[in-house]
Design brief:
Strand content: 35-45%
Structural class: alpha+beta
CATH class of the domain at 71-228: Mainly Beta
CATH architecture of the domain at 71-228: Sandwich
Largest sheet: 8 strands, antiparallel
Distance between the termini: 120 Å
Number of helices: 3
Radius of gyration: 41 Å
Shape: elongated
Number of strands: 13
Helix content: 10-25%
Length: 229
């Protein structure tokens, strides 16, 4: 009996069974970077789509309308007087100019809402002239005729007086004529918003030319048109 008891006590004893450790599965967090990337990708696709649609619309408009650039030319210029009096710092002037505007478009009319004509001599501006507004029809030509005449106070530096004396001796004067405009376009019943083009005319004008020609003998001088200033 003692042997049985000893045999029972010497048997291997491991105690109660230990349950396996529980595995804890943490829920995966969705990266916020993924959301940002998806949003940026969507915005990029929208922008590309809009650009493509706008490009197609412009192409269709061009194919249908075939717009051409409006042309500006000085066709007659008469400088009857341009005198500087150093004793009282005044300038006397008499300048008449004809500017031809040609609209070559078949389907576009142009509203000239504001036309400001600025004439300058050696960076000294004569008083501006505002010309009447008008509507120019398609494939038509209009003529603007600003006339500058009067006196104004003007102080010239010694270098400017020297430049003036040289041109006075040659009888040919360098003048700039600019048109600051506010226009709208009309295509059928559609009228665009206003925009502000700028026309620049660089002139070499002889004093008291009897036929309105320029210094080089030409009858016309092409002006540069800038759609946006």
């Amino acid at each position: 009996m003692a042997d049985k008891q000893e045999s029972h006590l010497n048997g291997a004893f491991y105690g109660p069974a230990i349950p396996p450790p529980k595995s804890h599965h943490r829920p995966r967090r969705r990266s916020s970077n993924c959301g940002c990337c998806c949003l940026l990708s969507l915005l990029l696709k929208i922008i590309i789509t809009l650009i493509v649609l706008i490009g197609i619309a412009i192409l269709i408009f061009w194919l249908v309308v075939r717009p051409n650039k409006v042309k500006f030319h000085v066709t007659d210029v008469r400088l009857n007087e341009l005198e500087y009096f150093a004793n009282n710092s005044t300038q006397s002037y008499d300048l008449a100019v004809n500017i031809t505007i040609r609209n070559p478009n078949k389907k576009i009319k142009i509203y000239y809402d504001v036309i400001e004509a600025r004439a300058t001599y050696h960076n000294r501006m004569l008083p501006s002239i505002y010309l009447p507004k008008f509507l120019q029809g398609h494939k038509s030509t209009n003529v603007l005729s600003p006339h500058y005449k009067g006196n104004q106070s003007m102080f010239l530096t010694p270098s400017e007086v020297e430049f003036y004396d040289k041109e006075k001796a040659s009888g040919i004067y360098t003048l700039d004529l600019d048109l600051y405009m506010k226009v709208r376009l009309r295509l059928g019943d559609i009228v665009t918003g206003s925009f502000k083009p700028l026309v620049k005319c660089d002139l070499k004008v002889p004093l008291k030319s009897p036929d309105g020609r320029l210094a080089d003998g030409s009858e016309t001088s092409k002006c540069d048109l800038k759609i946006f200033r």
